[in-house]
Design brief:
The structure is a single chain. The chain is of the alpha+beta class. The chain has a single domain (2-170), classed as Immunoglobulin-like (Sandwich). It has three helices and eleven strands; from the N terminus they run H-E-E-E-E-E-E-E-E-E-H-E-E-H. It has helices at residues 2-14, 123-135, 160-170; strands spanning 26-31, 34-41, 44-51, 55-57, 67-73, 78-85, 95-100, 103-112, 115-119, 138-144, 150-156. The chain has an eleven-stranded antiparallel sheet with strand order 1-2-3-5-6-9-8-7-10-11-4, sandwiched between helices. The longest helix has 13 residues, at 2-14.
Length: 172
């Protein structure tokens, strides 16, 4: 969980969304619909691949920026940690779900400030999701906001493999 919250803070700073004053992230590359970054905070390095949804439903709901992120924290020996930044606080006790092809993956949700974040509880499932992302063409994320609104975000996976390869190269 700390890794996810740290990554949300890094992403927020990288995109000028507020958060702690961190070193400016280094863009490692753009890979179709995905980008790869590297950042250092207090001597700890994080590399992450991220994308934003191509489509978000319902379309009339106001949300903060939305991301799907895969992070490597080499100092903590964490590699391939998927997380969701929903753009809203999640309903307490709710789960978020990622679907790639016919496979679904459940995420635990947490609210950090005004936004919600979600992550997978175990490393084996994380790696199954990443394998599915590498072979899939799109991914759908479903969640429920604190207000009870059900959302569906559709991400392109075009470039995900290239971005993941790049962060694995830079932060093994």
């Amino acid at each position: 969980m700390r890794s996810t919250i740290a990554c949300v803070t890094v992403i927020s700073a990288a995109l000028g969304l507020g958060g702690a004053a961190l070193a400016k992230p280094e863009l490692l590359g753009e890979f179709n619909d995905w980008k790869a970054f590297k950042s250092t905070d207090g001597g700890a390095t994080v590399c992450y691949a991220l994308s934003q949804p191509k489509k978000s439903e319902p379309g009339n709901v106001k949300r903060d920026p939305i991301f799907f992120i895969v992070s490597n924290f080499p100092d903590r020996q964490v590699k391939g940690e998927p997380s969701i930044v929903a753009g809203y606080p999640f309903k307490d006790g709710s789960k978020a779900t990622a679907t790639v092809g016919g496979a679904s993956f459940s995420f635990v949700t947490v609210n950090a400030g005004s936004d919600g974040a979600a992550w997978i509880a175990d490393g084996a499932t994380e790696q199954k999701l990443i394998a599915a992302m590498r072979s899939g063409s799109n991914m759908t994320i479903k969640g429920t906001s604190k207000r009870g609104t059900n959302t569906t975000d559709t991400y392109s996976l075009s470039g995900a493999s290239g971005a993941l390869d790049r962060i694995n190269q830079e932060c093994p």
